[in-house]
TrEMBL record:
PANTHER family recorded: METHYL-ACCEPTING CHEMOTAXIS PROTEIN 3, PROTEIN ICFG
Source organism: Paraburkholderia dinghuensis
Keywords: Chemotaxis, Coiled coil, Transducer
Record bears the keyword Coiled coil: yes
Pfam hit, one: MCPsignal
Residue span, Methyl-accepting transducer domain: 20-221
Name the UniProt record assigns to this protein: Chemotaxis protein
């Protein structure tokens, strides 16, 4: 009996050992499978992390490039803004110069009209001086005739001869004054003609300058319009 019981106990222990070893093997296999799955998941996550890291680097490069482009555009816009301001200031100065030239042109036109009127007055004064000279010559002839007639009358015409002499002296002085007046008018004509020519030349120069300034102003306005709209005017 004791031997039978010992045998049964030995058989049970062997069976338990085998079952225990089988369970250990099963647990080890489960652990190995779990480790394999975990390693696969870690590898997949590592691959995803690498992909995300690459995308982040790509995004950083794109951001750096875009920032560089934005800085360049900002600099270009600042330069364009400065150019527009300079063009506006130039346009303002040109407009002021055009206004000044218009005022000068109006002044020259007024001088031109005044010189034309002065030349017309000089011409009228020449005609009147010619009439005066003709009258003085006629008085001289009359006084000479009167002196001749007084001489013929003898003592009776002495008083008339004295009057005729005074008339002839006055006519001679009038003739000299008329000649001096004619010479003054001739000098005045020369001065007036030279001044008139200078005024005409100055007016033409101002008109040409005004046309050039207005053309430049229109060009600047066109450039400013194109700059603002981005399209040809």
């Amino acid at each position: 009996m004791a031997l039978a019981a010992a045998g049964v106990i030995g058989i049970s222990r062997a069976r338990w050992r085998r079952e225990g070893e089988a369970q250990i093997v099963t647990h080890e296999e489960a652990i190995a499978q779990a480790e394999a799955r975990a390693n696969e998941r870690f590898a997949a996550r590592a691959s995803e992390i690498d992909a995300l890291t690459s995308q982040v680097d790509t995004l950083r490069a794109e951001l750096a490039q875009r920032k560089s482009v934005a800085d360049a555009l900002e600099g270009a816009l600042a330069a364009e803004h400065a150019r527009c301001e300079d063009a506006q200031q130039r346009a303002a100065r040109i407009a002021e110069e055009a206004t000044r030239l218009r005022l000068m042109s109006a002044t020259f036109e007024r001088w031109h009209e005044q010189m034309t009127s002065l030349m017309a007055q000089n011409h009228d004064m020449h005609q009147k001086n010619q009439e005066l000279s003709s009258i003085v010559n006629h008085v001289l002839i009359v006084s000479l005739n009167a002196s001749i007639e007084a001489a013929r009358a003898g003592a009776a015409g002495r008083g008339f001869s004295i009057v005729a002499g005074e008339v002839r002296a006055l006519a001679t002085r009038s003739q000299e004054l008329s000649k001096s007046y004619r010479d003054s008018l001739n000098r005045n004509d020369l001065i007036t003609a030279a001044t008139f020519q200078d005024i005409q030349a100055g007016g033409k120069m101002i008109a040409a300058s005004l046309a050039s300034v207005e053309s430049l102003s229109n060009q600047l306005k066109t450039q400013l319009k194109e700059t603002r709209t981005g399209e040809p005017a």
